[in-house]
Design goal:
With 227 residues, the protein is of the alpha/beta class. The protein has a single domain, classed as 3-Layer(aba) Sandwich (Rossmann fold), CATH 3.40.50.150. Helices cover 43% and strands 22% of the residues. The protein is built from eleven helices and seven strands. It has a seven-stranded mixed β-sheet, with helices on both faces. The longest helix is centred in the first third of the chain and has 17 residues. The radius of gyration is 17 Å and the shape is globular. Bound molecules: S-adenosylmethionine.
Length: 227
């Protein structure tokens, strides 16, 4: 999902780009075997996300975000990422898939640019995107994202659990970044309900769901903002 892969994708024709993206969507979400990887949460949240205004933070190639757009009538999505090429690719794919009227795009440069997002949102989703920097660096961005969430709104996050980190031998988070997400990943730290609540403010959210799956490689955190 990084710059190199993005640069390769952006040079493809529309037909080839659609083909490559739909293959990733099939393998990650739509195939029967994908149900125990990422498919399950697309089924679980399909009805809930219909008609909602959603921020997909760290959208990458928006395998989940664009799938939700296809499956959830009336949903509108803002795709936000720190890598401009990723946003350009997602914009092209949303055009190709005919979803352009419900999608918009926002480059994240720092926590201040989060404040310029066109909120408030019913849902903020960060799927594999909010754990690639130390907690004290992520905290201002998380606080700015929290301000973009409506009272009663939901925070959905996909991350990696502490159990996986311990099983991997408790490496430094610099090493773990490379182990989990590949050679260009500078950092990866585990996220728990408690660590997330301590960054977001435990008095402002109620936990809705915590789930570890796929041999405890991933975890899912669903919280509701009080108000
Ligand atoms: C592993 S990809 C996840 C992509 C996508 N959410 C999905 O589920 O397929 C992580 C994405 O998060 C973006 N990212 C990393 N750190 C970020 C941050 N602090 N704020 C916003 N996006 C970030 C990266 O550029 C990358 O596109």
């Amino acid at each position: 999902m990084g710059r190199v892969e993005g640069q390769e994708l952006i040079s493809l024709s529309d037909a080839k780009l659609r083909d490559v993206w739909e293959r990733m969507q099939w393998e990650n979400v739509r195939a029967p075997e994908a149900m125990t990887e990422r498919g399950w949460y697309h089924i679980l949240y399909r009805e809930f996300l219909s008609g909602k205004r959603i921020l997909d933070i760290g959208s990458g190639l928006a395998i989940s975000g664009l799938t939700f757009m296809q499956d959830c009538p009336g949903s509108t999505f803002v795709f936000a990422d720190i890598v401009e090429t990723n946003l350009e690719i997602v914009k092209r794919i949303s055009d190709i898939l005919g979803l352009q009227n419900r999608a918009s795009f926002h480059l994240i440069e720092d926590a201040a640019s989060v404040g310029k997002l066109p909120g408030p949102f019913d849902v903020v989703m960060g799927l594999g995107s909010l754990h690639n920097a130390p907690a004290h660096i992520m905290e201002p961005e998380l606080k700015a994202l929290k301000a973009q969430l409506k009272p009663g709104g939901r925070w959905l996050q996909l991350a990696y659990p502490e159990h996986r980190w311990r099983r991997d031998g408790s490496p430094s988070f610099t090493e773990w970044g490379i182990m989990t997400d590949g050679p260009n990943t500078p950092w990866c730290e585990w996220v728990s309900m408690d660590s997330l609540l301590s960054m977001l403010g435990a008095d402002d959210f109620d936990p809705v769901l915590y789930y570890e799956w796929h041999n405890r490689e991933f975890n899912w955190l669903d919280l509701k903002k009080r108000g």
